[in-house]
Amino acid sequence: MTLSPVAMMLVGVILALWLAAGVWAVHSGLRMRREGAHARAQADRLATLLQSAPALPVMIAADGRVETPERLANWLGRDRVPAFASELTAVDGGLRPQDAASLATDIAAAQRAGKSFARAVSAVGSERSLLVRGAPAGPSMGGPGSVMLWIFDATDAQTEILALQAERAQLRAALESLSGLIEAAPLPMWHRTPDLRLALVNSAYVTAVDARSAQQVIGEGIELVEAMDGKSPMAAAAEAAENGTPLARLVPATIDGARRVMRVVDVPLGEAGIAGFAIDMHELEQARAEHRRFETAQHDLLDRLSAGVAQFAADRSLQFWNQPFSSLFALQPEHLAEAPAFERVLDRMREAGRIPEHRDFPAWRSERRDWFLSPDAKEENWLLADGTHLRVFAQPLPDGGLLLIFEDRTEQVQLSSARDTLLRVRTATFDNLFEAIGVFASDGRLHLWNSRFRQIWGVDETLLASHPRIDELMQKVAKSLAKPQQASLVRELVRAATVERKQRNGRVAFSDGRAFDFAAIPLPDGNALFTMLDVTDSRRMEQVLRDRNEALVETDKLKNAFLTNMSYELRTPLTSISGFAEMMQAGFAGELPDAARDYVDAIMQSTGRLAVLIDNVLDLTQGEAGALPLDRRSVDLESLAKECAARVADMAQSKALDFVIDLKPSLGRITGDARRLGQALDRLLDNAVRYSKPGSRVLLYGDGQMRTARLIVSDNGPGIEPADQGRIFDRFSRADQAQRGEALGLGLPLARQLVDAHGGTLTLVSEPGQGTLVTIDLPRESALAN
Is residue 231 a part of any domain in this protein? Predict the structure, then answer.
């Protein structure tokens, strides 16, 4: 670096004066003493000025001698000023080795080639920075080969320079990052020069305008958006530059072949031009519309909830409520429509008596106000004065608002209380049942049991309290069973109830003689109920009853055999009696007097009834034994019914009865034994006529369908008591003698047995004092099949 003209002039003047003063002093001597003294004084002043100057002059002669102020020693951290240039550039001369070597090279070049230089050096052990400027001294200063150095203390300047360099690097990195960010931005961005021409666009801009490159966009001035209301993009940018504020507007654009609405923002940058960017508002508008639809749907949903819902905005004003909320707290809709504050809503709820009573209501209300600032949801239970239980859920909203949900849990609380009571009752009942009960969970572990269960199995409460699995429990109690292998049966039944959800029953015998019926029943909750009932006594009674029943069956067989044999044995003498009586009645023994003839008629009547009774007994015994013979043929039921009616017509006429016969053509024919069916119908008609009072009505009705035929015999006689109707079809049962006048005999049991033998049914309906109706239903197809 060269000295400035002023500095060089100053140095030259100083040296000239100094040399002039020296020459004048030598040649003029004393004559010039006064002028010499003046010159010396002037030199002292110049020396003082140099000492106080910001730069130190250093004169290096051709032989390497150094002339410089003493201050240089302080700057270099030395005790004295170097006398020669070699000392200044030595390793221990006070400069850093690399700086000293470079400075020596620069001085040598200046001495040889007269080349000026400037170099920054640093002192050893110090943060001081020195700027050395050197140039040849010239003939007037030091002669050929001499070099003039000016050393400046550049510590502060160097620090500032380094700071500026760091700041420049930082700004350059930030600019590069910003450029990369702009280039990678998904939205179009651009920069205009002050003359409003495009100077920079990013890749999103190039893609949006379907250009090949940014150079094409800039070269051809391709604009992103169209003119809107007569205002072109350049005009909008000019307006933003003129106003000095960003200008935002919505304009249409065609992006990827689709029409879009873009929000374009032009930002003035002063003398740097105008920057701009465009935001695609299509998705945002869609999102806003979706948000509005979602909010509407949410409000519709909340309106349909049975719980009360209230939503407050960030300023704590009521924004939404549903009908259950206003009803639950007795709030008027017109008051809520005014968007009251949260505190005012609480006040109105208190006025309606719909919040819990508190001694310090303002403090309570202040605590609820803090719900808006809480990071987490809050939940409380309110018990109102009228017994209403409310579950309150407070959810802070992201926008600073608050959503409150009030659920009326009065019914649930009441049900819970009732359930607890039922559970206590169930537990007490469960523990005092005569049956042993155990509940096994789905994993086979014993879950519940009663005291009877523990007593029957004879296990400790501690074992049951450990909730053992069924296999563990059966392993413990298997020794108490009469057959220990039956423990596996119990395990299998519990497994079937818990896993297969099937009910199983069984019986197990204990080694002490006790017997238990048990059942494994699947429960709706996945568990299984295991019950055990002590059937030891009932089993013994069952055995006794079984033995007695076998004895009764054997007795009944003997009775049937006796009746059969007796019927056959009675038939022989009865035949002889009736035969001799017929001969006497016919006059084979001569003419009988009137009294004898009456006796013979009585004998004939009695033998006839006895013969019918014997036939009935024989038929009953054969029917019970399954040996009743049937002669199956086609039977005309209408003809059969008329014949049976004819046989009781005289008896009905003698009692002045209204005997009605109503046989429909649909009665038709069936396949069966006409004699047996006639016997059954005779018994019914005989009973109806026999037990009807004079002047009453007896009806014989018949009709039929495709598959069945029906005969009905009804009367309006005395009827049958309900207690006797259950026994009336027993063979030897007797109705009330006082009501009927005599026993019913074997008529109805035999009639039912005959109808049953044909595959039909006989039913009886009777009301005391109203009469009796007997219905015979006979199948057509089944009769034919037989």
Answer: yes
Q: Domain with 613 in it: what CATH number?
A: 1.10.287
Please give the pLDDT value at position 678: 85
Residues 204 and 318 in one domain: no
Q: For the chain of 786 residues, list the mean pLDDT of each consecutive stretch of 10.
A: 62 65 59 57 57 70 77 73 75 74 80 79 73 75 73 70 78 74 79 85 82 84 77 82 84 74 84 83 73 72 75 87 82 84 87 82 87 86 84 86 84 77 72 76 81 79 83 80 79 80 81 79 81 74 74 64 57 66 69 71 68 60 57 87 88 88 90 84 86 88 91 88 73 43 56 83 87 90 45
What is the extent of the structural domain holding 519?
433-534
CB 408 within 8 A of CB 388: yes
Judge whether 190 and 275 are in contact, CB under 8 Å: yes
Query: Using CA atoms, how far apart are residues 52 and 45, in angstroms rounded to an integer?
Result: 11
Cβ-contact 683, 751 below 8 angstroms: yes
Predicted pLDDT of residue 713: 92
* In contact, 278 and 264? CB cutoff 8 Å: yes
Q: 565 and 529: one domain?
A: no
Sign of the alpha-carbon torsion through 115, 120, 124, 126: positive
Q: Do 620 and 635 sit in the same domain of this protein? A: no
Distance in angstroms (rounded) separating the CA atoms of residues 596 and 589? 12
Domain assignment present for 169: no
Map residue 644 onto helix, strand or coil: helix
Strands lying side by side in the sheet with 147-153: 66-67, 55-60, 147-153, 129-136, 117-122
**779 in Cβ contact with 759 (< 8 Å):** yes
Residues in contact with 428: Cβ distance below 8 Å, sequence separation at least 6, in sequence order: none
Residue 206, domain CATH: 3.30.450.20
Residue 259, both tokens: 């029409």
For residues 470 and 446, is the Cβ–Cβ distance under 8 A? Answer: yes
Element (H, E) at 145: none
Amino acid at 338: E
**Dist. CA 784–CA 174, nearest whole Å:** 112
What is the pLDDT at residue 141?
Answer: 63
Please give the C-alpha separations between residue 718 and each of 424, 575, 688, 689, 721, in angstroms, as whole numbers.
57, 37, 10, 12, 9
pLDDT of residue 731: 55
Residue type, 356: P
Q: Is 29 left (phi over 0), alpha (psi -120 to 50) or beta?
A: left
Query: Strands 117-122, 129-136: parallel, antiparallel or unpaired by DSSP?
Result: antiparallel
Q: Which two tokens stand for residue 346?
A: 């609480």
Say if residue 643 is in the same domain as residue 618: no
340 with 382, same domain: the answer is yes
In a domain, 741, yes or no: yes
Residues 35 and 74 in one domain: yes
CA distance 711 to 700: 7
Buried b (16+ CB within 10 A) or exposed e, 367-402: ebeebbeeeeebeeeeebeeeebbbbebbbeeeebb
Same domain flag for 155 and 18: yes
State residue 289's pLDDT score.
74
**174 belongs to a structural domain:** no
Pair 140, 112 in one domain: yes
CA distance 599 to 593: 10
Strands 697-704, 658-663: pairing kind: parallel
CB neighbourhood size of 466 (10 A): 12
**Residue 666: CATH number of its domain:** 3.30.565.10
How many angstroms from the chain centroid is the CA of residue 750?
A: 70
In the chain, how long is the greatest CA-to-CA distance? 234
Q: Which of 585, 609, 628 is the last residue of a domain?
A: 628
Helix/strand/coil percentages in the chain, nearest 5: 50, 25, 25
Show the tokens assigned to 113: 């080639």
Burial class (CB in 10 A: 0-12, 13-18, 19+), 9: exposed
Report the alpha-carbon distance of residue 571 to residue 581 in Å, rounded.
Answer: 15
Both structure tokens of 525: 């909750």
Domain termination residue (choose one: 534, 555, 570): 534
Per the structure, the count of domains in the chain is 6
